[in-house]
Amino acid sequence: MSRDFFFGTTSGVPNAPKPRWSADPGRMLFWPATNSRTNFDRMRLETLAVHAGHDVDPATSAVTPPIHLSTTFARETDGREHTGFLYSRYTNPNRAGLEQCLSALEAGAGATVFSSGSAATMTLMQALGPSHVILPDDAYFGSIRLAREVLGPWGMDVSTVDMRDPANVRAAMKPSTKLVWVETPSNPLLTILDIAAIAEIAHAGGAICAVDNTWGTPVLQRPLELGADVSMHSTTKYLGGHGDVLGGALIFRDGGDLYQRVVNVQMLGGAVPSPFECWLTMRGIRTLAVRVNVQTSNAAALAEFLSKHPCVEAVHYPGLASHAGHEIAKKQMKAFGGMMSVQVGASRQESMDIAGRLQLFAYATSLGGTESLIENRASVEGPSTRAPENLLRVSIGLEHIDDLKADFDQALRAAR
């Protein structure tokens, strides 16, 4: 499938061609670029974030897209569809716009969006059928639990390995392996994995490679261009960016059989976001590049500050030259992101006490929003956690960096 698409409607375009559709009822793919106003393939990410999937509403000329709450769409009495939309579990104008936008951001051939990042992960694994999957031993604990506890009894064989050495992935491959799941930077230890090397191993064994790019974001990391087949996001995080929407997404390097199987599972299972959630995510994406660049700049400065602080045991941030994955991160990332973890205090409780003294960092789960957040990960993940007891995961927001430094400094020094 060519990536030369026009993302939007053809309203007002002379001699506009008809859209192409997938085999699934109501699933709109992309408008062909012929005669379109804009060729988004030539646009930079900042421009795509503002324009891809958006178009002036043909009914009202509204610049901000309307929210289409209708669950059903009128057809002719012979069953013909006016617009390609049939029923909101299949697709919806807001969802179609978001999927088009995400596909453009990651230079993919198609995208699907879901009610959560976990729903996106589960749908991909379900579409592969009972098989063997390999995950990093430092992946998000929810992804590992999902594969083992939910899909394991269904027939999924799960292996977790230390992927910092790609040879461990090669050793874990089986004839039944269909998926190698990569998460980089990892949650919460910020381990860096070599996407290109692992994708090559997966493909040599007849498997696909999917990358959880939630922390990397399309601004900083391009998994599909590094050889991965699928890029996954919890859109709740950086893409939504304001802590007010729950969602997930899968973006595919090509629009072949795997994409169609995922679409079918999504359509039949119904793990879809509401039109309002899609609208909110699109609103957030418009400022994605600006937010991520500021958060990354703040994180780099705070990591450097904390790495020299006498009250800090360790800082986990790939932008530090001392980080074990620094060179790989330099190779595959534009910059190092807005997430870090720090080890402070002599125990879980001491680290939580330090976090409690912070004034600008809310003690809360989630990440990627405008405000800075912090939490003790061992207390969240439970007995199976690999996080050190005194590790605090930190999501850096848009506050002034000098205020963030001063806040951390007062909280740390009060512990002495």
Task: Tag the structure with descriptive keywords.
416 residues, alpha/beta, Aspartate Aminotransferase, domain 1, seven-stranded mixed β-sheet, 15% strand
Layout of strands and helices, then pairs:
Blueprint: E1 5-6, E2 31-32, H1 45-51, H2 93-105, E3 110-114, H3 117-128, E4 132-136, H4 141-150, E5 157-161, H5 166-172, E6 177-183, H6 195-204, E7 208-212, H7 217-220, E8 230-233, E9 248-252, H8 257-269, H9 275-285, H10 288-307, E10 312-316, H11 326-332, E11 339-344, H12 348-357, E12 362-363, E13 373-376, H13 377-381, E14 391-395, H14 401-413
Parallel strand pairs: 4-5, 4-6, 6-7, 7-8, 12-13
Antiparallel strand pairs: 1-2, 3-9, 8-9, 10-11, 11-14, 13-14
Helix pairs in contact: 2-9, 3-4, 3-8, 10-14
| CATH level-1 class of the domain at 289-413 | Alpha Beta
The low-confidence parts are 1-37
- The name of the CATH topology of the domain at 289-413 is Aspartate Aminotransferase, domain 1
**Mean of pLDDT:** 90
- CATH architecture assignment name of the domain at 289-413: Alpha-Beta Complex
* Helix-strand category: alpha/beta
